[in-house]
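[worker-b] picked up task from shared queue
[worker-b] task type: protein-ligand structure
[worker-b] ligand name resolved to pyridoxal-5'-phosphate; SMILES cross-checked against name lookup, match
[worker-b] sequence length check passed
[worker-b] input payload:
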Amino acid sequence: MSLIPPVKAYFPEEDRQWITAQIEEMLSNGQLTLGKWGKAFEEEFAKLAGADHAVAVGSGTEAIEIPLRILDVAGKDVLVPTNTFFATAAAVIHAGGRPVFADSEPSDFALSLSSLEKQITPNTVGVILVHIAGIVSKRTEAIADWCRQKGLWLFEDAAHAHGSTLNGKHAGTFGVAGSFSFYPTKVMTSAEGGMIITNDQKIAEEAGLYRDQGKTSFLENTHGKLGYNWRLSEPHAVIGLAQVRRLKEINAKRAAIAKFYDEALGAGVPGGPLTVSKNQFSNYYKYVFLPGKVLDRKALKKKLKEKYGVCLAGEVYETPLHHQPVFQKWAGGAFPVAEDICARHICLPLFPSMTTEEARQVVASLKEALNG
Ligand SMILES: Cc1ncc(COP(=O)(O)O)c(C=O)c1O
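[worker-b] inference finished, payload out:
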């Protein structure tokens, strides 16, 4: 029985050949970091997102920490969702700040305004909004307005949201800056890598310094900031560039599978997917389905894999951060929605080269496994 994998990167033959040819050239000329490919990757990503500036870095984690250092969160509180990946909150701590967790809304798993109201402290300087599963929450503008009223900045961890929009506006452009991850399971990848986007020239310039050991210029050895080696290499950048150029195609293929799931799941499976409205474009980083009843997710995953050859994708997320051992010091508050959605949802396999036949097999297996 061949397995349907949870995710699969998309590199058509043509792209593999092109990338290989560029890497061959880099190896012969020795220009392996901070060169023309990194610049091209930044320019094309900024254009795609409709941002003035993009700064390529070594990972999505670094793309959060660098702006937080520039925003000077040291000793300050930053509101972050408890329903997010470890790195969102860890980056706050690495930049010297304190994460304060907030709950989510069940409709799209993203931050809840009423929870932000409850959790804000006199020491709060900003909010990190995460566009879970590639959906730019309908509350994004309202959260940005709330931040303005309170004198806070809004930063978007858009690690999931390449190409995703709300009212035609790209993820990462609603606040001071946004970050993206190019980890291999993301909708586009550079193997490892990350990108900061911003319309603020000062943030972009400082990010460029931070990523290269805080040096005041590439060719000088004066260190003006406490930077680090957060650079993206040229081979990574050229892989990322090939993927930016494919992103529209990748997202169209993902949307077609998601549409198939929406229709085929229909009334046959109790529960439903996260809804995406006409004014939202989701890249379907994850196809999230909330079953109508609480089920043993581990047992379901095992059964789907062993009996039907279907691998469910990883959750977003299985454990809210306030339950992670490392964050116990910062875990104050009640987060009932995050507790519920983290425990309950599943993510169906989805990747650009998935066939309709494979998607049909996923739905049929799920129906049988849940109803049988
Ligand atoms: C929401 C979120 N933020 C940050 C990251 C970190 O990205 P990276 O793995 O590229 O450092 C991820 C990666 O999985 C993520 O999902």
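[worker-b] attaching auto-annotations
[worker-b] The pocket of pyridoxal-5'-phosphate is lined by residues 59-61, 84-85, 87-88, 130, 157, 159-160, 181, 183, 194 (CB under 6 Å).
[worker-b] releasing lock
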